């Protein structure tokens, strides 16, 4: 099987429960490695734990602690490129990344 067909297989499995995180939008090799370092081996785990919780775990370990990485994770959870997220949501994610110790994360607002 070629690398191209492997990639196509991964992309087909994005909606599946155990798709590799690299198959999600916004997730390159470095971010995928950081996700695995905090116990997120696949797309389903990322969706279950949520972008903010995973981002906070990465931040605690000194990995990808900026607003763009949080936006990338949220985009991955939603299956879209981070720059296609709603402007209001992107702004809220920037607020969280700027003041990560604030207790009201966006998950509480997502209702």
UniProtKB/TrEMBL annotation:
Residues 19-95 form the TfoX C-terminal domain. Coiled coil: none annotated. It holds the Pfam family TfoX_C. This is TfoX C-terminal domain-containing protein. It comes from Arsenicicoccus cauae.
């Amino acid at each position: 099987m070629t690398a191209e067909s492997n990639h196509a297989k991964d992309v087909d499995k994005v909606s599946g429960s155990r798709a590799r995180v690299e198959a999600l939008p916004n997730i390159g090799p470095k971010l995928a490695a950081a996700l695995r370092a905090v116990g997120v081996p696949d797309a389903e785990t990322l969706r279950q734990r949520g972008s903010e919780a995973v981002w906070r775990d990465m931040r605690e370990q000194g990995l990808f602690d900026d607003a763009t990485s949080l936006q990338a994770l949220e985009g991955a959870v939603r299956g879209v490129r981070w720059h296609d997220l709603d402007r209001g949501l992107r702004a809220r994610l920037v607020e969280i990344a700027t003041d990560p110790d604030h207790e009201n994360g966006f998950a509480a607002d997502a209702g």
